[in-house]
Amino acid sequence: MLASLQRWINDMTATSETQEPPTLALASAVLLCEVIRADYRLEPAELDALREELDQRFGLDDEALAELMDLAQHEAETAVDHHRFVRLVRDECDYEARVELVRAMWALAFSDGKKDALEEHRIRRLAELLHVSHSDFVRTRLLEQQRAEGAAD
């Protein structure tokens, strides 16, 4: 049993050492996936909103966009922690870009017509990790809430 445990540890270490660092597109997509996965339901409206957000943000062709979404969903489901994605976004993006990412998180949270407490908690935590102020967290939530309510009317 100790041998199999040691082999598993060695495999995990080798994988993490040879793994390429994520791109900014992948890191952003994983964090956005974290929001839509927070309530343990993937709604078609949320996936459509994610696809649209990534398309607007990165301007990829259909094949590259589908690949990015698949990889982001896989990473969001299997990653032990998301620190490397948060760190990359925090290091590569200025404050306004990080606020815009939080706004996009709120847009995804409202895309299925309801705000779930688990999604709000996840966005709050990610905003803190991205060093986005509480006032900008609230401002972006209100902005997207008003857009969602306006779209429902």
Q: Whole-number radius of gyration? A: 17 Å
What are the low-pLDDT stretches, counting only 5+ consecutive residues below 50?
14-18
Structural class: mainly alpha
Number of individual domains: 1
Estimate percent helicity: over 70%
Q: What is the total tally of β strands?
A: 0
Strand coverage percent: under 5%
Arithmetic mean pLDDT: 87
Question: How would a textbook summarize the main sheet?
Answer: none
Along the chain, the helix and strand elements come as: HHHHHHHH
Explain what the structure shows.
The structure is a single chain. The termini are far apart. The protein is built from eight helices and no strands. Helix content is 79%, strand content 0%. Helix 2 runs antiparallel to helix 3 and helix 2 packs parallel to helix 6. About 3% of the residues have low confidence. The chain has one domain: TerB-like (Orthogonal Bundle). By secondary structure, it is an all-alpha fold. The radius of gyration is 17 Å and the shape is globular. It comes from Halomonas elongata (strain ATCC 33173 / DSM 2581 / NBRC 15536 / NCIMB 2198 / 1H9).
